[in-house]
Every structure is written in structure tokens, then in C-alpha cells.
Amino acid sequence: MSRDLAPLFDPVSVAVVGASDDPAKYGHAIASQALRAPHRRPIHLVNRRGGTVLGRAAAPRLGALGEPLGLVVVSVPAPAYEQTVEEALACGATAIVAVTAGFAETGAAGLARQRAVAEKVRAAGAVLVGPNCLGIADNTTELYLASDTFDLGGVALLSQSGNLALELQLAFAPHGLGFSRFVSLGNQSDVTLVDLVQDCARHEATKAIAVYAEDFGDGRAFARAAAAAGKPVVLLSAGRGPAAARSAASHTGALTTSSDIVAAACRDAGVELVRTPREMTAVLAAVAGGRRARGRRVAVFTDGGGHGVIAADAVEAAGFAVPELGPQVRERLAGQLWGPSALGNPVDLAGMGEQDPLSYAAVVRTLLDSDEVDAVLMTGYFGGYSADTGGLGGLGGAAGTLGAAELAAADSIARAVRASPKPVVAQSMYPDAPSCQNLQAAGIPVFAAIEDAARALAAVVVSTEAEDGGAVAIEPLPGAAAPMTDTGYYATRALLAEAGLRFPASAEISSEAEVRAFARSTSGPFVLKALHLLHKSDAGGVALNLADEEALVASHREMHARLSAPSYSVEQMADLQAGVELIVGVNRDPRFGPIAMVGLGGVFTEVLGDVVFALAPVSAARAEAMLRDLRCAALLTGVRGRPAVDVAAAAKAIEQITRVAAAQHDLAEFEVNPLLALPSGALALDARAVSLVPPSLSDY
């Protein structure tokens, strides 16, 4: 159930404890900001010395104010933190913003203090942001409790960095973007990132939610909140490199990194994941227009061949197609342009813009009207005619006339875009020119760099899955199954078989007589595996293609002489040439829970690294999408005379595996490698489970 944060963003009054005349203190900055809107609500300043602060009377303590409180900002030294919060609650405070630092970030003792205070706040029915935060602001309610001012706009920024907000403020300005809210997350001892995303989703003035997070807390809850937000969520995530410590007891553990997990959660939740503040700005500028591309066919439109080629490369590198336009579209363009113009795609004015700047608008309108185009990227010189560039390439007195015509073209382009559901983005050598600013004002993002324009396009593409019914569904976590007291090979097989997964005929054996008995009851060829070895192939504990009983017995004798394994598995050998070997693994992340990995399997899994990730469990439909995302996906449809495999059966097997693994809360990793996708059905050829508790040496 989402929390009511109205006392935080629209309090009846504000008290700043630790308000100061000293500009070096944070209490000075916040008090100064709070006083920007004294007409909206009562503002109280509290300083233990009393007297005056910023020319206003300051109370020595909260209790001396003599009235119930709304929101209290706590900016005091750490030793006074608990007492100040308790006094605020005693005075009826319903919200607290704790700037004070020195808690969870300092170690176990600080974490214990932080938790104790948060429990008191929740017990009182109040909410707390922080501690160790840099304040909050809500431009829509004139609540200014951060050290800096933020331009009004539609972006709510939830951030673990204050300086990032300042950088984004500067980056937003050319695009006409601003902030509805700013919240410094701090240590999230009470109000969490999830709470804030849910509240911003309900906030009418917030059109997009921007997040900078180093710690998600409950990452899966964040993904669910973002998926349900109903408005764009853009995440800049730090620390997404390889995890500092990880069990590598399976391929899944060795291949899964923190960045994979965050990317998987974002993909499933429909969150735009970005790497830099610049990229975040490009994405927010694009989604602010509200238009979405229903496909990946982009028309590149330029007034110079070089710009067109570079833009086409950037667009294709971003995953789009730049298809050649059909004869009807080219014929219409030919009627609008002149002989030197290129009409295929990229469409190049080739100097026509100097003859008639309104040709820009004519081309944009034609491209938007075409059923062959899903989006338009305009690149190059547009803006140069209205910019103050001196001689404008020798155009001299014509500059003023061309500039006016370019402004008219910008207005015409804006009208064409408003009349179309398709997005248009632009790259210009002169992004600050008046004509480009007119495009910006009309919701057409303009960038100085072509890579930013290409990234902006990527942000406004509606995926096939979204067209079919919204964001990818995040499957609910199943209830915890009974713990696996035995994580051995046959116990793992039995668990999966009960869920419907198919395995070859097999038997666990510990003697030569049992080897012979299995061989005589089942046709070959055979596979022999030494059990109780996590990486059997690496240890020489797997023998394949044993043709008959004698070959199987000989292999058992040789393997046992080397490994002395307590038991072995003897199995019917599957025809590997008839199918494609896949790997299906589930790794349990402390923040996001079970994460599914699907990829090209077999002994070269780690070498090839062709894997994709998703929050587990995954449905069969989601599993099919994951298989299509593999670089080797063409193998599944049949190549070089090999038959196509039963992708639906493989996807169903992936669903079964991930559901079993997600229910085993006591496991760190769960893996089937290989899962053999066949022309008819799918067959699991090996399985392993790794407990969350590290095994003892006796387990090996």
C-alpha cells in the first residue's frame, strides 16, 4: 500500500532546526530558501541560542514555538539528532527532513541509531526523509527546503546526489525542462525511493520521474512501482560494475553482474536506463513531447551529405533502420526539391535550404505523412540562417531574409509535428538559434550532438510488447517452497521433473554391476557423469557418446580411478546435433531477488557470453522474447540445413525452471545447462543448485 506523503510536500507549516546566519552551514542555506515563500505557510526558525537568524526571531527549541508543527527540517550535529526528532514528534510534527549525517554510512552502530529513530517516527504516524540528505523542494506547492533553486517544470528528481541536481538544472535549461520536485534520498531510513516514485506517479504536475540511485533498497519493489507509474521513469544508476563478491559456483554466478541485474529490472519495468546526466537530459527532452514511434523505421533528413551519413550511422547503431523510401514518397519529394537533392534516405536538400528555407517544412510534412516512416531525425545546418553567425558563409545581406524564412519554416514544422503522432528530433550546429528554440518550444527536442538525438529517438520507441498490452508484466514472486535439504544432482532433477521438465532416462550408480544393468536396460549411446562435482566438465567428470555397454564400463573404470566420486549418473545420450544447447539460470540478488538468465549453453557458455536477463520468474511469452534477443537467435530458426527448433517448448521449459528457482528462497543459484531445444520439445541434460549457505568441504 502506497504512503500518503502530502505532509512532506505540502505541509501546514515548516520549522528549520539549526537555522543559522553562518553561510558555511547548511541550516543557513535551507532557512534562506524556506523564507522565499513565507506567504504560503508559517516558517519557523530554531537555533539553540535564540536571538535572530536572517533578520527573524529564532526560537531556542521547537517546544518554545507553542503551536503544532507540520514539517521539521533537522540540521543539527549528530549527537543532538535523536533528541531533536523526539521533540518534533512531541510537538505534533507529521513530516521530518533530516539533513544530519553520521548514521548508517558510518557502520553498524550508526545504522542501529538510524533504525531506532525511524521506528519512533513511524510509530507516531509521521514520515521522515533522510538522514544524511540535502533537503527537498516542491515547486508546485512553493516548498523550498534545499540549498538551491530549481526552475519550474514537469520532472521530479529523486537523487542521492545534490550536485547532480545542479548539473541537470544547467542541462535542462536549453530544452525548456524544469523540476516539479526535488528530493535528496539520503539513507532512506523511512521514506524510500519506492514511496517517492509511487507518490510522484500520483502527482499531476509531474510528467516524468528522474532517479539517480546508488542503493535501491528493495529493487524489485522499485521495478514494480516504476512499471505502474503510468509516466516515464528515467534511471541513472551508479556502481553497476561487477559485484564486489559473488559465488562463482555455476556459470550463472560467473556471468551475472550488477549491471545486468539493473538493466534487466529496467527493461521489465519499462524504465529508461541511462549512463550520464547528459544522456538523462536527452531522454527526458524526448519523452516530454509525449509522441511515440510505433516502429524503428527512421527517415534521416539533412542539408549536407556528411551530416546525413553520420546521422544514419548513429541511428542504425541505436537499433533503428534507415530504409530506402519507396517511389511514391520519392516522387512527392522530387516535386518539393531540386535536381541535386537526394531523395532515398537520408533525404538531402543539397543546398535547397538556401534557395527556400520553407523546403525544410515541406520535407518534414511529407515524411511524417508517409506510412514508410515511424520517426524523423533532422540534422545539420538548420538554425544557421536565424543564428547570429556573422557572414553566414558568404550569404551577406541575404542572411536577414533567410533567417526570417527559417523562422517561418520552424513554425511550419511545429504545426506539422503537432498534427502527427510521430516523433521528430533534431540535431543542429546552432541549437541555440531562434528557429531551433521555436522547435524546442513546440516539443521538438534539438541537440548539438547527433548521438544525443539518436538516444532521444530510442527513448520514444514503443516496443512490440508495449503495443500488445503495456509494459512487460513483472511476474509476482511465488511463495517460498520447502527448503532443499539435498541440492545434489538427482534431487534437483526430481524437483524440476515434478514441475514438468523432461530429462533423458538415467540412473544413479555406484558400482560396475549397476553400470552394466543400466546399459542392458536402455539403448545407447550413453553419457557418464561424476556426481558431487559442481563443474564436472572442467574436472574431466563427463564422458559423452559412449557407444555401448563395454565403452560405458571402460569409461566408468577410468573416471573412477581419477576422481573416486562417491556415485555417478549414467544417462541416455541425446542427439546434440538435432537441437540447440541453451543455458537457463537463476541467480538470487539481495536487492532485486531472483534474476533469470537465458543464453547459448553448453561448455562454451562463459566464453561466448551470449546471454540475456530478466526478473524471475518469467512467463513463456517473456521467455520467447528473451530467446529472440540472443545474438545467436538465428540458430533457433534453422541455419545451414539444420532444422528449426521448437521455440515455444523451450520457452515453456524456461518458465518451468524459473518458477521452481524463484520459489526456492534458500538457493543462491539454480541452473539447467544445457537445455536442449529440439525440433519437437525440449530436454534438460544437466542441472545444479547452489545453496545460499556455502557448502562445507564434506559436501564435495
* Radius of gyration, whole Å: 31 Å
The neighbouring-strand order within the major sheet is 9-8-11-10-12-13-14
The portion of residues forming beta strands comes to 15-25%
CATH H-level homologous superfamily name of the largest domain: Succinyl-CoA synthetase domains
Named CATH topology of the largest domain: Rossmann fold
| Biggest β-sheet description | 7 strands, mixed
Helix fraction by DSSP (H/I, runs of at least 4): 25-40%
Shape: flat
Oligomeric state of the chains present here: single chain
Would you kindly provide a brief summary of this structure?
By secondary structure, this protein is α/β, with parallel strands linked by helices. It has 5 domains: 1-135, NAD(P)-binding Rossmann-like Domain (Rossmann fold), CATH 3.40.50; 150-291, Rossmann fold (3-Layer(aba) Sandwich); 293-461, Succinyl-CoA synthetase domains (Rossmann fold), CATH 3.40.50; 505-572, 2-Layer Sandwich (Dna Ligase, domain 1), CATH 3.30.1490; 579-699, D-amino Acid Aminotransferase, Chain A, domain 1 (2-Layer Sandwich), CATH 3.30.470.20. It contains 24 helices and 29 strands.
